[in-house]
Each structure stands twice: as C-alpha cells, then as structure tokens.
Design a protein that fits this description.
This protein is of the alpha/beta class and 179 residues long. It contains six helices and six strands.
Length: 179
C-alpha cells in the first residue's frame, strides 16, 4: 500500500433527502485508506449498535479509525435531552481534536448536519471548525438539512435527491443495505 499525503484538503458536504450520504463518505474513506491516507470518522447521533455493519467492515481496514456518539434510539428534534447534547458535544470535540492532531488526512463527521439542524451543535462551531482545518486535511460533513452558511463555506457540496424510495411504499430500512 502506497503512502500518500494530501497537498490540498477540501471541505465536502453530502446532504439532501436522498439515500447515499454516509455511503458516499465511507466510499471515500475506503478509497483514501487504499492510498495510504489515514482516516478518522465520527458518527454523530448513532450509538455503537447503530453502526454495527459499518463498524464490522471499517474495523478491518488499515488506516481507518472511528468513534460513535449517540444515545439509544433516534434523536427527537422536539424532545432533545441532555444525553443527546452531551454525546454531540463529545463527538464534536473528538472530531476537532482528530482534525487538528496531524494524525489524520481525512476526517468525516457523519450526520453532523442534522446534529446542527436539531440544535445539538451550533452552526457557528462548524464554521469555526472549517476555518481551523489544516490545509492538508480533507473534511467531509454528511447528513440532510445542511446549514446554508456551512454549505457556503464548503468547497464541494453534493445534494442527494430522493426521486423514489421504498420507504414511501411501506418498506422499512433493510439490515445490511440501509443500515
């Protein structure tokens, strides 16, 4: 495996109501690791049991490390609790430390956009993080409802558009495919 360094890291966002935001970020993580780049992923609003499939696969890939931050169950935007806020804060601090550590070339903040939208993390903190990003680090932010100011600060934004989804026909998320 060759060991490369990024000359120019960028800020990328995968957002929108369509499927594939986390999948796109994990795809980049595996590609980067294959080139010898070191990757760190922070899963927001997802407890360890939620990222079981990803955990199993990613833990076997050299150069990829990750941590999950989230309580049990889904975060209810209308009923935020102290654990939700504390988990998001811990995740954000871990992401920032990892980005600034010099140990990683790619840092992925999975589901950071809804964490901001739900009020768990202020958008200003994410904008600050973008300004602090070392020039040789790729920063990837995922999740629907990306804040407009964060979108403006990014170098690349891809919006996943939901054209047709089985959920609309009553088919629930499928293990191994959707989670």
């Amino acid at each position: 495996m060759s060991s490369e360094k990024l000359e120019h890291g960028m800020v990328s966002i995968f957002t929108g109501d369509g499927k594939g935001k986390t999948s796109a970020a994990i795809g980049i993580a595996t590609r980067a690791a294959g080139h010898g780049l070191r990757v760190f992923i922070v899963f927001f609003m997802k407890a360890d049991n939620y990222v079981h499939g990803e955990r199993t696969s990613l833990s076997s890939i050299p150069n990829i490390k990750f941590e999950s931050f989230g309580g049990k169950g889904w975060v209810d935007k209308n009923n935020i609790n102290s654990e939700d806020i504390e988990q998001a804060k811990q995740g954000f601090n871990t992401a920032r430390e990892s980005m600034l550590s010099g140990e990683y070339d790619v840092v992925i903040l999975d589901e950071i956009n809804p964490a901001v939208f739900f009020g768990l993390i202020p958008a200003d903190k994410v904008l600050e993080l973008i300004k602090e990003k070392p020039s040789n680090v790729e920063l990837i932010l995922t999740g629907r409802n990306a804040d407009a100011r964060v979108v403006q600060a990014a170098d690349m934004v891809t919006e996943m558009l939901a054209i047709k989804h089985p959920y609309n026909n009553g088919i629930q998320a499928r293990r191994g495919i959707d989670y």
